[in-house]
Every structure is written in C-alpha cells, then in structure tokens.
Amino acid sequence: MSDFAELLRRYRTARSLTQGELATRAHITQKAVGALERGERRRPYPHTVRALADALGLDDDERARLVAAVPRPETSTAARTTSSGLVRIPADDRLPAPASPVIGRDDQVEAIVGALRVPSRPVMTLTGPGGVGKTTLALLVAAAAREQFPAGTVLVELADIRGADDVVPAIASALGVPDTGTGDLVGAVASFVGNRRLLLVLDNIEHVLPCRAAVATLVSACPALTILSTGRTPMRIRAEREVRVEPLDHDTSVRLFRERMSARGGCVAGDQRDADAIAQLCRHADGLPLALELAATAASRIGPRTLLQTMDAPPDSAPHDLPTRQRSITATLDWSTRLLTEPARRLLARLSVCVGGFTWPDAQAVSGLTAAHATWALTELVEHSLVIHVGDIGGEERFRLLEPIRQHAAEHLDHDQADDARTGLTNSVLATARALARDLHGAGQVTALHRLEAGLGNLRVVLDQLIEHDRDDDAAELLWLVWLHLAIRGHAREGSTWAARLHPRALTLQSRIRLLVAWAGLEHLAAPTDACRRSRQALDLATGDDEDELLATQAATLAASTAVFSRDLPLARGLVAEANRRADALGDPYWITHARMATTQIALLAGHAPDIEQAARDAETAARCLGSAFETGAALNLRAVAAQLGGRNDEAAGLLAESIDLAVAAVNSWTLTYMLSTLAVVAVRLGDPDAGARLFGAWTAYANAHGVVEDFPTTHDLVTRDIDQARRDLGSDAFDVAWRSGREAGMAELVEIARKVRDQAIH
C-alpha cells in the first residue's frame, strides 16, 4: 500500500468517517475513495487531493503531509517536454497492458488504428454497453498506434471524476500542465499541446458529457491533437467519429470463456456435456466479455454444468484487479442506468419483457409513455448503448437488449408494471400478426416470414401470457394467424404444444375451428393422420348453421392434403373435390393454390400419368400467380416428381434446383425434406450416386430435426428403390461416408449439390 493510501485511510478513520461519507463530503465517488485507499489509484489529481483535505478538515500540517505523499511528477505518468520540443511520457511508465490475452478484437484494432490517420475527424469515441470491452480496445489501439504519435500517448481515466468541470483539470494533471491561476485551463492545455502529434485517451466519458465543449475547443486549437474516448454514449460534437464496439460472436465467446476458465485453474475437458454447458453459458452472456470473464471464473471453481444450473456467478468471483464498478454485471449496469433520465429507466425496465428483440411499435406498447416520450426514451437508451439497434428486418427497424442487460432490467420491474408491459406487448404482437396475415399468404410471404421469425421470442412470451391469463380466444386467433410461419420455419412441434394446451379450454365456435385448423396445419407433415382428423372436425364445425366460408375452405384443403397419407383414395378424392369447390367459390388465390396441389397429390397416389402432368402444371400456374415462395417451391417439387415419373430427369433437376433456391429464400425447413429426397432420386438416375447418397442423408437429417414423416406416400417407392441403387453403385462403405456427409451438410452445401445436379442434367 502506498504512503498516500495509508495516510488517507488513517485520516478518515481518525474522524470516524466511512468511505461513503468522505466521498459525499469531497464530492467524489465512493469507488474513487476505495481505489485510493487500496492503492489501486496511486496518483490522484491535485484537485482531488484538495477536495479530500477539505472534506477531512485537515490542518495545515496534515494537509502538507497528504500532498507530500502523492508521488512527485518525475515518477508519475505526467508528460514532459524534452529537448526536441516533444511532449512525451517517461519510457518507464507505459500505458497499462491488458491483464490477460484479448481475444477477438484484432481486426477492429487494425481498422481503428487506420481510421486514426484521418485528420478530418480528430475525436474518435468507442461506444458500447458496459462490460463490452471499450477500455481494453482503446488501450490496444493506443499501443498499436504509438508510432503515429511521436509526442506520446496520455491516458486520462475519468471513471472516478465526479463532474464535467473536473475533466480539463484531470487532462492538465495527466499532461503535467501547471495551473497558472488565470482561470483559463483549457487555453493553458491548448498552449501546452500546440502543434504536437499527441494521442489523448479519455476513458469513461459518458457521465461527464458536458465537457464536450472543452474537448471541441481543444481539438480546434490543437491541429495535431487526436482524442480517443470511450463511453456508453458519444459526445456528439462535429469533430467526432463514433465506433460501436460490438459484443463477441458465439465462437469467439466460447474461445474466451475456455481461455479464462483455464487461466483460473479450471479443467477445460473435452466432455461433450461440459462443451454444451459452456455454449449455453456463452449464449447467456450474449457476447459481453465482462459477463464471460465472470462466468468463466465461477465455472473454474464449480464447473460449467453446476454453474449453468444456477446461472449466476458467486459474488466474489471477479478478479480483484478489475475496477470496483466492473466486479459484477450488476455493478456495471447500475453504473450505466444511473446516468439515465427517469423515462429512459422506466422504458428499459419495461423492455425486459421483450425476448429476442423488439420493434418501435413494441417499445411504445410496453412503455406506458406517450409516443413522443417513448421515442426520446428509446433514443436515449440507444445512445447509452443499453439498447442495440439491430437494423432493418423485413422492412422494419428492430432493436434488442443484450441478455445480461435484459435480466438486470427485469429486476427493476415490479409485478404490476410487468403485467402492464406484457399486456402492451401482447396487443402489439397480435396487431403485427393480423397485419401480416395477407402477406404471409401471398407475394409478401418471404418478408412476413422474416418479420415473424425475428419476433419469435415475443410470440412465445405472448402465447404463454394469453393462455396463463385465460385469454384463450385471443391465443387461438394468434396461433391460427401464425401457424404457417411456425411450420415453415421448423417450429411445428412447439406450435402443437400450444394447441394441445388450448384444446381443453372453453372456446367460442370460431376460436375452436381456428384452433383445429392451426393444429392440423402444424401436424400436417408430422402426424398426418391426426391432422386429417382435426381438419375434418374443423370442416364439420365450420359448415354448420353459421358457416364460415374461409375456415371451411382451409379445413377442407388441409383435410384433402393429409388424406393422401391414409392411402384411402376414395376418401382423398372426395375431400379434394370439396377443397377445390370451396376454394374456387371463395376466390382466395392462396387456398386455390393449395387445393390444386392437393389435386396433384391425389393424382400421384392414383398413378394416372395424364392426370398427374395436368394437375402438376395447374398447381405450378396457381402458385406462380400467387407469388409466394413456399407454395411455388412446393408446386415445383410436385412438377419435378411428375417429370421424374415420366423419365425426364433433366427437367426434374432444373425444377428442383429452383424449388430449393426458393426454400432458401423463405428459410423453409418444412417441405425441404421432400425436395431433398426427390432430388436424391434424380441424382441417382442421372448417374451421380455420391450426390444422391449425400442428399438422402440430408433428407433423413431434416426429417428427424423437424419431426416430418419421411415416407411421403407418392414418392416412397422411388426413394426406397434408389437408396438401394446408390448403395450398390458406390459400395456400402462409400455410401455410408456420403450419407454421413449429407447429414452434416449445411444449407449452402445442399444448394451447391442441387445446382451441380442441375448442371449435369443440362450438359
């Protein structure tokens, strides 16, 4: 402990003052007092020493001893003028280096160092949420850019500065500029720096933003001065460039977690259960390096699986050389939220009910504020890096809270406020689903799918909220509005779980039909027998005294589509005839398209070639007129089956390549299963058994992942025969290798295989 630290502690305890009481009297922060007494901050600024002496009521002798205990300028980091006229930092006292290896910032360091060479914007501010690593990045940049600043680099730590008026004195102290007593300290600093190429690092600027005028004056008066600052929010001056410091991606987070856990003495084994737990902990930290550091330290003590069960780090797990405000995520975020206005704090707490992100309408709905106040509050949260602006998704701006921030905000939301916010979110999600219903069933389908997928976390919250609060009819409507999205994007099992929860509830007749239609759609390819039964129940209810034409058409079409799986041809023909009659009478292009596709499936089941060709072309025509990616891809798959049965494998390959491209555009993992199996058959027929085997492997992987029945009745025999053919052509060992490769293939690789098969067919 330094002489100054010991003397300060002795004077404080002699006067029976706590650190907090001394901080209040001296108008500095309690963490600043603590850092000084622990010796973590060895050279306080002169104005800080004066404030402490005044607060302690020291006599002249005591005051002199306290001042004398501060290290002299010749051993401090203060800059000095050399014989060459340059301001330099002594060679024996360099910028602090990161205490541990920094992972995942190399590219950003290089980019920022390059940007510092541009003189038109001499102020650069690194912004981002607390714990994202702004200070670490600034120190790396400053070290890497040393050669660009021959006059030196000066670090000014502002976290312990209480007010904006203390910033310039802190800069002057760090530079070694004497206070001449003229009152123009900005001018004195500007005169001292002059034309020297100097880098000034201002760390933690967010709570002293009114200093921006002085900063602007300095860079205006000193043409070679560059300022690199860090903060939750930028200064917003014309000379400034803002660089957002983003959280780490998942793979980098896992690398950092493992490195820190190992450095703390933890055993980072190759056990898959530990690997899964680490991955989950990293997702929980949402890429914040501080959260990862704290979790890794805790995991080094109790193991990642045990930590995952508690999802919390022991309070003393943080490294003790971190600043006090960074020894827990709670302390870091408390520091951030204290800087907010009351409306922004209120909105932040209420936004914690949003999971996975939100839109501006969502934010306004949960806020309980007027539109104008909500706008300003959201702007403030983005400015302070507590809310991240994700960007445009499907023509709509989206935002999100990092998961540690969301959980911290939720702790400041009382029960009544939480209920009010969730009610607002519920109304917003319902409104969005209603507004997107037409697009989801038409040419705007891909955009609607992207928007609904982006809001999936909130959809889950809202459906649970509606069911738990007995708003069963609203829940049935919402599930009916979004079932197609859930099915296409691979969430059919989850959707069926909500349907099962609603099934025993007392619903209105319309809600009961909607629920059965949605449930049938969700189970269409997973449990087709149950889906056929539910859709026929819905059809019976919809054709009662108060017939609902739209719901009756939907139920009839779903019943016809799922009847194919029963292989009961008379039943299927009767249902498809009713589906076509109702769809044509309703005049809805979406359900006309599905009725035509059901007709094609029945024709395939019957095996009459002329009917198959005509039905498949009718389905493709209807789908292309509709303009929806999912239906067009499904219709093209049916046409490909018809072409393959007719021996036109080259035509089938082209149709399937286009259908898979459409599946990629819609991120359709639902019917992609059947496209892959059909293309696998075509590949084998075209003499490429290796591609066929890989596609068959991918087919089974997608079927298992999404709960889809593998054996589609109309192609089952083809698939079974050609799997055996590919195995014979390749040999069992080579076939198994290709099959496993296909099971592990990503979407990009499958698209490449599809195009390869198509190109082989063309040539």
Describe this structure in words.
Residues 8-63 form the HTH cro/C1-type domain. It comes from Pseudonocardia alaniniphila. InterPro entries: AAA+_ATPase, AAA_22, Cro/C1-type_HTH, HTH_77, Lambda_DNA-bd_dom_sf, P-loop_NTPase, TPR-like_helical_dom_sf. The structure is a single chain. With 763 residues, the protein is mostly helical. The protein folds into 5 domains: 3-71, Orthogonal Bundle (434 Repressor (Amino-terminal Domain)), CATH 1.10.260; 80-244, P-loop containing nucleotide triphosphate hydrolases (Rossmann fold, 3-Layer(aba) Sandwich); 250-325, no CATH class; 523-627, no CATH class; 629-762. 63% of the residues lie in helices and 6% in strands. Strands 4-5-6-3-7 form a 5-stranded parallel beta sheet, with helices on both faces. The chain has a 3-stranded antiparallel beta sheet with strand order 8-10-9. Strands 1-2 form a two-stranded antiparallel sheet. Helix 10 (212-221) links the parallel strand 5 and strand 6. Helix 12 crosses helix 14 and helix 20 (415-440) runs antiparallel to helix 21. The longest helix is centred in the middle third of the chain and has 26 residues, at 415-440.
